[in-house]
Design goal:
alpha/beta, TIM Barrel
């Protein structure tokens, strides 16, 4: 399997990161986002209810791109395979995770913030990378420098970390940015408050900026 994977999966250019504390909210949360036009849902494996929430969303919304975030262990890779996740993000670039994901043919996007990490991912065949943490790593200017320093201009990035409605367009203006990811559309506070109206408003605003 070519580790470049399929960047067309993120054709909508918006990936909504979800940190879910209560899996009983998973269905309504996903329904809210999907109804507004969001079709890339990243469930971060950061809470005790993350995996059960992911299973609920995957079962009921498999017609959209349900993926996982914060994949940092071999057990997480196994869960991604069992879930049949459409994609999986990592915050870093661990060789054992790169190899395991390739072996399982998982659509895996490793996290990078330096030329060394990019080189490591590239050596393993990955061409679609998560630029993380985007803003604190130097922002879009640093990303442009990293991209332009590489001989292979087929590399693509999905920035995440500090992305929001005020800066997302500066990333999307670059052809090497496939999509942007972040939690600003559905932060944990709004999820716990069941504020589906505000989440929907933020989703529509982001989609409009991205040209959808």
């Amino acid at each position: 399997m070519d580790a470049i994977n399929n960047p067309a999966l993120f054709s909508s250019k918006i990936v909504v990161l979800l940190e879910i504390d209560n899996d009983t909210l998973a269905y309504d949360l996903a329904a809210c986002l999907v109804d507004t036009g969001i079709d890339n849902l990243e469930i971060a494996l950061r809470t005790p209810h993350s995996k059960s929430a992911a299973e609920i969303i995957k079962k009921n919304f498999d017609f959209v791109n349900v993926g996982l975030g914060t994949v940092t262990s071999l057990k997480d890779v196994d869960f991604a395979e069992d879930l049949a996740a459409k994609f999986a993000f990592a915050p870093d670039c661990k060789p054992e995770i790169l190899k395991a994901s390739l072996a399982k043919k998982l659509f895996f996007i490793p996290g990078v913030s330096s030329a060394q990490e990019i080189a490591l991912a590239y050596e393993h065949g990955y061409r679609l990378l998560k630029y993380y943490p985007a803003e604190s790593s130097g922002g879009v200017d640093k990303l442009a420098v990293l991209h332009n320093s590489l001989k292979d201009q087929n590399l693509r990035f999905i920035p995440s970390g500090g992305i929001n409605v005020s800066n997302m367009q500066t990333y999307l203006d670059h052809s090497f940015v496939t999509a942007v990811a972040g939690s600003w559309i559905a932060p944990k506070s709004l999820i716990n408050e069941k504020d589906w109206k505000e989440i929907a408003t933020r989703a529509k605003q982001a989609l409009k900026i991205a040209g959808h």
